[in-house]
Amino acid sequence: MTRCNGWKVGAGVRVALAALLVGSQGCAPAGQSGAPAAASPYRDAETSATPSGTLRQEQISVRMTAGDLRIELTPLAEWVLEAAAPDTRDRLARIGETHASDLARRSGEGTPVLFLVTFSSMRPGAEFHPDDLHLVSRGLRERPAAIRAITPGWGSQRLEQQQSAVAVYAYPGSVDLSRGLTVRYQDREDSSWSTIVARVEAERGRIPDGALDR
Question: How many angstroms separate the CA atoms of 78 and 126, rounded?
Answer without folding.
Answer: 33
